[in-house]
Design goal:
single chain; DNA polymerase, domain 1; eight-stranded mixed beta sheet; six-stranded parallel beta sheet; 19 helices; binds the ligand O=P(O)(O)OC[C@H]1O[C@H](O[C@H]2O[C@H](CO)[C@@H](O)[C@H](O)[C@H]2O)[C@H](O)[C@@H](O)[C@@H]1O; trehalose-phosphatase activity; HAD-like_sf; EC 3.1.3.12; HAD_sf; magnesium
């Protein structure tokens, strides 16, 4: 569907792109949702006590989306309160935060939001930024619109201010007397500032009110950006086209060392087996290994993935001749127990939790602050999924895997929704994908690739006589392949759903064992020579 976007832009002769900020360019929707929930839940509770009445708390999946998302702040307060049959005086924009007026409650929400912005910060969607950068390089003009009065701070916090020729936000709207969405005013002003007519511009929106606003303004193309599985609703409200991500040319993305990242189809990779001698040359390997799907076959239940005695023996021999680390999505203690070899390094929870021989233990990703969010998310997910047969919520120290391998196809949507609902509640967490699992991880720039580079550095392996080799089978291993591209070797086991940054392949777990055995033999034979 994403490929259609470039075609649609061409067909409609689009000269300018007007993008909504929250949910399309920056990931602040979750911060907003959390701030709204904090403000309204406390207010409703306090009011309920006073009136001896029960007011239901705000639900993010329904109330926030329906009454608040994408519209000016005070309108959001008024809309939501109306859904609970509460009418308050409008008040003044200068009302004290928390005063029982529309403005007072809106001002309190804004304080909570700014607190979250300072503590957690805004992040830009990498796919949007990569695509926008490409479009601007082709001469496309770009504007960003938002109902927020904090847009400048948010754009600066996400580091994307320079990507837009015009910014039309809540402050500009007040100055010019522009009506909020679903009125088209804010988009029309953006088009005016870009010096284009609506029939020359495309609008990108994730909110239903925003899609309606684009339609009301007769823009040439309305693109719904579906980050929350709401594609049908976006279409019903007027989107011409719905995309889940912006189409980026993955081959042109760069790896952490700044060199061009090469990605290929798994089927194009040569087997590493005939190339071991050439690969090693005169170097000593440092071997980083994923666990599930690499050292053990993928099985139905996580606890059934037991290491074979043969694989353990091979690993033990290898660890006598070079550094060996297991880099896994599993909990570190769990994977260390499964492998059960003392002289290996273990990076668990996708690299956030690392241990090694002689009592070494360190958590280099800085994820400790996400622990309360993980604890709460774990409880909520277990409650939400308790009746979904076959689902497993597997808590690791710094991640939660939500397994749906054994869930009936028609129930997988319930799992999807539960994960999305929880993500909205916890901006400290982000979603990752794996084989038939969703992973909730700390929302930090840390992953298996960073853990590998950290180990290389800490263990003084960044030397010309060392060849780092990473072997893995899953999407999460791509970060490690990318981190080593140019300096080491990535080996993909089997295939996953995307292109790969690995350079070689191995068919399955048996071939991994054969490769590790041969590697050990080559190093040993050199020593004997
Ligand atoms: O990074 P890894 O060591 O590969 O860990 C990734 C996840 O592996 C486990 O789940 C996967 O393997 C299970 C057992 O074969 C399988 O049932 C599941 O469908 C796979 O996704 C593990 O349970 C997760 O915690 C890891 O994150």
């Amino acid at each position: 569907m994403e490929d259609n976007l470039d075609t649609a832009l061409r067909q409609k002769h689009i000269k300018a792109l007007i993008l909504d900020m929250d949910g399309v360019v920056t990931q602040t929707a979750r911060l907003h949702a959390q701030a709204w929930k904090r403000m309204f839940d406390a207010y409703l509770q306090q009011r309920g006590k006073r009136e001896n009445k029960t007011y239901y708390p705000l639900t993010i999946a329904t109330d926030y989306r329906k009454y608040i998302d994408g519209i000016p702040r005070y309108d959001g307060v008024r809309n939501f309160l109306a859904s609970r049959t509460i009418v308050l005086p409008e008040g003044e924009p200068t009302d004290e935060p928390g005063k029982e007026t529309i403005a007072g409650l809106g001002n309190l929400k804004n304080i909570y939001f700014k607190e979250l912005l300072t503590t957690i910060g805004a992040e830009a969607y990498p796919d949007t930024i990569a695509w926008l950068t490409q479009q601007r390089a082709k001469g496309m003009r770009t504007a960003i619109i938002s109902a927020s009065k904090n847009s400048k701070t948010i754009l600066a916090s996400a580091g994307v201010k320079g990507l837009f020729d015009a910014v039309v936000d809540g402050i500009v709207a007040v100055e010019l007397g522009l009506k909020g969405k679903p009125a088209p005013d804010i988009f029309m002003e953006a088009a005016r500032q870009l010096d284009v007519q609506p029939d020359e511009a495309a609008v990108f929106e994730d909110a239903l009110a925003g899609v309606e606003a684009g339609r009301a303004g007769n823009f040439a193309l309305i693109v719904g950006v579906d980050r929350t599985n709401d594609g049908n609703a976006l279409k019903q409200h007027g989107a011409d086209l719905v995309i889940r991500n912006f189409p980026t040319d993955k081959e042109t993305m760069t790896n952490p060392s700044g060199t061009k990242l090469q990605k290929r189809e798994a089927s194009e990779l040569p087997s590493i087996l005939p190339h071991i001698n050439k690969l090693l040359d005169s170097k000593t390997p440092a071997v980083f290994l994923d666990y599930d799907g690499c050292l053990t076959p993928i099985v139905k239940q996580p606890e059934m993935a037991v290491l074979s005695p043969e694989m353990r023996e091979v690993l033990e021999h290898l660890s006598r001749v070079c550094t060996v680390a297991i880099v896994s999505g599993r909990d570190r203690r769990n994977v260390a127990q499964l492998v059960n070899l003392e002289n290996l390094f273990y990076a668990g929870s996708h690299g956030f939790d690392i241990s090694g021989p002689d009592g070494m233990h360190i958590e280099p990703g800085g994820a400790a602050e996400a622990l309360p969010a993980l604890d709460e998310a774990d409880v909520i997910l277990k409650e939400k999924l308790k009746d979904v047969e076959g689902s497993i919520v597997e808590r690791k120290r710094y991640a939660i895997a939500v397994h749906f391998r054994n869930v009936a196809d028609e129930q997988v949507a319930i799992v999807d929704q539960a994960v999305e609902d929880v993500l909205i509640l916890f901006p400290q967490l982000k979603k990752g994908l794996g084989k038939k699992i969703y992973e909730l991880k700390p929302n930090l720039n840390w992953h298996k690739g960073k853990a590998v580079l950290w180990l290389m550095d800490t263990l003084h392996l960044n030397r010309s006589d060392i060849l780092p080799i990473y072997i893995g089978d899953d999407i999460t291993d791509e970060d490690a392949f990318a981190s080593l591209q140019g300096t080491g070797t990535g080996i993909l086991v089997g295939a996953h759903d995307d292109k790969t940054a690995a350079s070689y392949s191995l068919k399955d777990v048996d071939e991994v064992r054969i490769f590790l055995q041969k590697l050990t033999d080559v190093v040993n034979s050199r020593r004997d020579a």
